[in-house]
Amino acid sequence: MALKKPKVILSDVLENLEQKNYKKFCSALVDRDRNVKRNQVENKDFLDIANVMVNVYDKDTLKVAEELLREICCVKDANNLEIDLWSNRLRVAGPSPVTSDGKHFVDKHRRELINRVGNIGPILDELLDQEVLDNEAYNKINALPTNQEKVRELCTKYLNARMTKDIFYIILKKKEKFLIGELEGN
């Protein structure tokens, strides 16, 4: 499978934004950086905006786009962009979710995750938002009494596909960054 170029990925994301969110994105882009002039984004389509961002931010284009999406409360779009980065192997900063022995990070560190993830609630919320979990699964996991039981249930019954593990890993990197950093150091 061919890797998508950052401009193509960004174009896809911008094309799928609702018009009001697209306008917010363009406004946030101008407000963020003096190198982006208002006349470069006003009344421009998504392809023009992608070109401007690639010219200004180069290798950081997608990271900046992700930050802007979060800033304008398009969290799901930002998370999808982050997932697309992983699946296209374009993520420069940080290790891959696949370890050197070929195992997925979640599989390799399952026991440590079960025992050490401290606050599973916000992680489950984000998994629900990303449609990794449906409401029934979310409620079933949340009804369990301990964090360990919740993480065990999640890992054994709901994280069966690589993409779901990738999403879980990305969320863990945000919500449990010190734990993940420690486990990645092993």
Automatic annotation (TrEMBL):
Gene Ontology CC terms, in alphabetical order: canonical inflammasome complex
Protein name: PYD and CARD domain containing
Segments traversing the membrane: none
Residue ranges of domain CARD in the record: 98-162
Subcellular location: Inflammasome
GO terms classed as biological process: inflammatory response; innate immune response; regulation of apoptotic process
CDD domains linked to this entry: CARD_ASC_NALP1
Organism this protein belongs to: Poecilia formosa (Amazon molly)
Pyrin domain boundaries: 1-57
Keywords: Cytoplasm, Immunity, Inflammasome, Inflammatory response, Innate immunity
